[in-house]
Amino acid sequence: MGFDDLMRRYFGTADLGGLSPAELTAGSERLSVDFGLETDPDRRFALWAVMHILGTAPDLDVAFKDPAARDAARNFMDLLAGLAASPQ
Predict the structure, then answer these.
(1) Which pTM was predicted?
(2) Which residues are CB-contacts of 88 (< 8 A; sequence separation ≥ 6)?
(3) What is the DSSP-derived secondary structure letter of residue 38?
(4) pLDDT tens digit string along 8-60?
(5) Pure H helices in 38-66
């Protein structure tokens, strides 16, 4: 499932810029519920990554019991931070 597909599933659109704060909150809550229920590690990580991008991800020690998954999440966070800091 691609990023746009995930956005449509949880927010009803791939263009989050047009959402009201209430719609953004509701979609984030749906995403959080699915994250909490997900048992597949890869899908769970993908949902966490989307929540991180949106600024709604739980802390790593809460989100991931497996140290390797926490390390992967830290690497993802570092990668995004590096992209944000890179001159365009």
Answers:
(1) 0.88
(2) none
(3) -
(4) 999 999 998 999 999 999 999 999 999 999 999 999 999 999 999 999 999 99
(5) 41-54, 60-63
